[in-house]
Amino acid sequence: MDEPTMQFETILFSIEGGIARIRLNRPETLNALNRTLLGEFRTALDLIAGSAEARVLLLSGEGKGFSSGADLSGGSSPVGSPGFDAGAVLEDYYNPIMQRLFALPVPIVSALHGPVVGAGCMLALAADVVVAARSAYFLQAFVNIGLIPDAGSTWWLPRLVGVGRASGMMLLGERIPAEKAAAWGLIYEMVEDDELAARAEAIATRFAAGPTRAYDLIRQAIRAGLESNFAAALELERQSQREAGNTKDFAEGVAAFREKRKPVFTGQ
Question: Full-prediction pTM beyond 0.85?
Answer without folding.
Answer: yes
